[in-house]
């Protein structure tokens, strides 16, 4: 199958420097409140007060708490991606590197379980009105995985494997947050699903037969 270009992150809406700085303050306030008390602690009025913006302004940036928390997750993934690029995963094979990448991301979320719970719950509750934001989170996760694989042009089969890996990672977060899976079990599940990468990697072509011998010259 033909390779496909690496999914690109959508361009951010055109914001002025002041608007971008305000948006960052809002996302930081959302993350701080979620770290303290999880999903229920993120109230739009408190986010507005904490970030120093008017409540009406906050709603112009994020129409609902779900929109805000999904955007918060996308912001957290961007931060993780920058960290991973500064300190890339080790391992000889793509599957091993992806498993290490996802476990490092998982441990980062593990350090802030209330924040992780708030963001995952927002993704779970998101309806169609939040589809663009959810798609952005999915594309960001895809780019992180493909970076770990070292791929610029994945095949359709490889992209399919990446989607299954994303679903497993998301499910592992949910089961861990609900107390139904240990960290050890999450690690096993992630390492197991990453083996799909090896199954979808095209084999290196092998030349047919031995190379031709040079012609003998008579003396």
UniProtKB/TrEMBL annotation:
GO molecular function: DNA-binding transcription factor activity; transcription cis-regulatory region binding
Pfam families associated with the record: TetR_C_20 (PF17925), TetR_N (PF00440)
Chain positions covered by the region annotation Disordered: 1-21
Keywords linked to the UniProt accession: DNA-binding
Keyword DNA-binding (UniProt): yes
Keyword DNA-binding (UniProt): yes
Highest rank taxon of the organism: Bacteria
Name under which the protein is recorded: TetR-family regulatory protein
Source organism (scientific name): Streptomyces clavuligerus
High-level lineage: Bacteria, Bacillati, Actinomycetota, Actinomycetes, Kitasatosporales
């Amino acid at each position: 199958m033909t390779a496909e270009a690496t999914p690109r992150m959508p361009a951010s809406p055109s914001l002025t420097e002041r608007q971008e700085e305000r948006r960052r303050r809002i996302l930081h306030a959302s993350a701080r409140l979620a770290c303290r008390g999880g999903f229920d602690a993120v109230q739009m009025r408190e986010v507005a007060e904490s970030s120093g913006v008017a409540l009406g302004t906050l709603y112009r940036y994020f129409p609902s708490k779900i929109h805000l928390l999904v955007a918060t997750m996308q912001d957290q993934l961007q931060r993780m991606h920058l960290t991973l690029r500064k300190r890339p995963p080790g391992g000889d094979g793509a599957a091993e590197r992806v498993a290490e990448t996802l476990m490092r991301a998982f441990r980062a979320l593990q350090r802030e379980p209330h924040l992780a719970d708030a963001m995952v719950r927002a993704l779970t509750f998101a309806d169609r009105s939040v589809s663009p934001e959810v798609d952005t989170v999915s594309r960001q996760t895809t780019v992180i995985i493909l970076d770990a694989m070292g791929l610029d042009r994945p095949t359709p089969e490889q992209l399919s494997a990446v989607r299954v890996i994303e679903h497993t990672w998301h499910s592992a977060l949910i089961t861990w947050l609900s107390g139904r899976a240990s960290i050890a079990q999450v690690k096993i599940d992630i390492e197991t699903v990453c083996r799909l990468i090896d199954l979808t990697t095209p084999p290196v072509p092998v030349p047919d037969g031995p190379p031709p011998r040079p012609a003998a010259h008579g003396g």
